[in-house]
Queue: 3 jobs
Job 1
Amino acid sequence: MNQRMLLAVAVVAASFLTAGVAKAKAEISVNIGVEPACPYGYYDYAPYSCAAYGYYGPEWFHGRAFVGVGPWFHGENEFHGQVNNSFDPQHGYNGRTPSNGDRASKRTVAPKRFKGNEMRDGRGHAGGEEKR
């Protein structure tokens, strides 16, 4: 009888050991908030502050709407456009930049005589060739 009891305990123990542990599903939720409302576009790195007039070339605008950069990019995957990074604080620019919610001045959105010095895609990567 002891052998049967020992066998039963072993079977019950084995069933507990082989029973799968319920796996918890990991969820990562990143809330980046609403797209900044900047008249001339916003920089492609956090904290996504508004870019100065002249930073983005005309290919970054559809009509008067900015195609976006970073998490809010609305363009094609192969999109590349020109920027003038001399208007970027990371490259020494310390001039005026608009605030979130400001409206564009009476100038056109894209500067008429834009001079780009760098190609970028909509996700913050430099390099590549102009495509649209």
Job 2
Amino acid sequence: MTTQKTATSVWTVDKAHSSAEFAVKHLMISTVKGRFEQFDGAIHIDEDNPAESWVEGSVDVASINTNAPDRDAHLRSDDFFNAERYPQMTFRSRRVDLEDKDHARLIGDLTIRDVTKEVTFDVEFEGRVRDPWGKERAAFTAETTISRKEFNIRWNQALETGGFAVGDKVKITLEIEAVRQDS
């Protein structure tokens, strides 16, 4: 009996050309955006059957940057991420549902504050090229929206006019450029 070997390529995130950003409502009327400066990830692409590909990644929550140092310190505290106790957010995909050659749904486990929930990222394939130094690169945009309360990030402040200071829904956007490790 012979077994057929599939060609799986491993790609690592090029942090200099990638971003991990989020957006959340403030005072119910405006949107505050931020980013994480330190993150890592790998994409394992099954070249013969892309639906069998998988992704893993992590974010250093202490690297949060909203361009407001006092707010960033509050976000690192136990009111939000508790970066000292839970230093990383992690994601590991379970499956890829291909929609067409450029779009997929990436379903997997997101862990924040030791709480793991299934989330779905809508992924767009942005392209694949060889750079001037001979390395193969690929780019992806991935987006999802989560409820921060589901991950035990519950701090808030009631407003006199009704509603709360911080929205529950958080939009996550990843702009990823990855470098193939065996090219």
Job 3
Amino acid sequence: MIGLSSRCSCRGLFKKIYIIPVPCECIFSLMMFIVNNLQNFQTYFVIHGVNTRDKYQLPRPTVNLSCIKKRAFYSSIKILNSLPTYILKLKQKKPKFKVALREYLIAHTFYSLDEFLSNSQITFPLQHQ
């Protein structure tokens, strides 16, 4: 379609034509699930009432079974807490959250969930404060 060889990496190409890989699409879908069902989740600020740096994050349920940790509910909270703060602040504004998340995923083009979680410390270059 584009004329690249089979050995060429598509990472730069995805950024160029604004396509996100399948793992990023899964991340996007899980985040939209949380945003669409925010009434079922409580942030740390709602629980404790203390204004901390983690106030926009969701507490993960304490579980010991790995089968529960692999489920979508638990993974989605873990993924949400790994997003940059400027995106977390937009949870209540669905259209802006959707656009900011898609821009973030296109800019980074993660090929796996582990790559996304290990990259959570790096912030997006164009932070919308």
